[in-house]
Amino acid sequence: MNLQxxxxxxxxxxIRDEEGRLLLVRRARPPAAGTWSLPxxxxxxxxxDAAAVAREVREETGLExxxxxxxxxxxxxAGADIVYLINxxxxxxxxxxxxxGDDAREVRWCTPAEVRALPxxxxxxESLEAWAVLLP
Length: 136
Known about the structure:
The protein is of the alpha+beta class.
């Protein structure tokens, strides 16, 4: 039995608008294709987390962000002893035009009730609630 696990560093962005809605993307590709999640993805070689978050948000949503503090971390199994280690950061929008791009099928601002009603990626709602991001 192989207990070795390969961790893949990933990042996500917790972005709210002036009304307190959360920005979500509908994933077009695995993992979790077709579900709604935070904008984000893999950290590329030579990137730090902040650079990866800003790049992923720009690619998936068309928005430019300032990356703030770490909100929380989740581990998501990708099968075959591979685990995505996802660090989610608070971000503030400072420019760009909202549009779905890269591996995002759709992008939209969601109220907490809408987030809970959407088909979301594994652990998303539970993590956001635990981090006090998704309030009643």
